[in-house]
Amino acid sequence: MATLLTRKDGDILVVYFQDVSIIDEARIAGLGEELLELVKNENEKIVVNFENVSFMSSAMIGKLIHFSTRCKEEELKLRLCNINENVMKVFTLMNLQKVFDIDTDESDAVAKLKKSGWFS
């Protein structure tokens, strides 16, 4: 069962979580697999929008780090956006702003990817 929603904005794939709280182990495993499928589907630029998510477990953060690593290995550009204040506190405590490019909202993330090119 697909749990991620996606849409294209030009050459950018925008991904949305449907879950408000991401804590169930089976759900996290499924989300991790879905994220990795996005890497295989020839997407060059991906924005992951967290607007619906108010809580996620550390296991999901691990899946996101693995997803980021795979994106870097495949030379895909990845940005995260709309991270809830509570989730952002966890990201900050774990120093994840050094792992991820994080934007306040989707329009900023998309704009930064649209202007990224050969020299950025």
TrEMBL record:
One example GO MF annotation: anti-sigma factor antagonist activity
InterPro entries for the chain: STAS_dom (IPR002645), STAS_dom_sf (IPR036513)
Domain STAS positions: 23-113
PANTHER family: ANTI-SIGMA FACTOR ANTAGONIST TM_1081-RELATED (PTHR33495:SF2), ANTI-SIGMA FACTOR ANTAGONIST TM_1081-RELATED-RELATED (PTHR33495)
Listed name of the protein: Anti-sigma-B factor antagonist
Species: Mariniblastus fucicola
